[in-house]
Nitroreductase domain-containing protein
Amino acid sequence: MLHADDPERSKVQQRVHDSVAHLGEIMGQVPVHVIACARTGAATLPEGNQSAVWGSVLPAAWSYMLAARERGLGTAWTTLHLMYEREVADILGIPEDVHQGVLIPTAHYTGTTFKPAPRQSLDEVLHVNQW
């Protein structure tokens, strides 16, 4: 497991794992699934600079999630479906030159424990001029 050598971070990873497993179990009950896509004009993704492909799609997906939260909706960022991207595309009629970036299940939030996640200090994750 990621961060197995760090007890605090390992606990967080276990909660993430449990959350992912739960989402997998209830995914079919989620009323709305948003899939953010990029049209590349080709059946395969171009090699090299992927920021040109995803540079506007992924920030738009994140903005959608923030807007949903403001309206009392819960979302989750997942890419696990991409193992079956072609099958999903076939079911939904997504053209071959359109590539899925993220699946965002969306529903009314039913829990009572939603709160900001703990974050590492900025000094631990921001590097200026050198690592």
Q: What stands out?
A: The chain has two domains: 1-30, 31-111. Strands lie at 32-39, 73-75, 98-108. Residues 7-26 form the longest helix (20 residues).
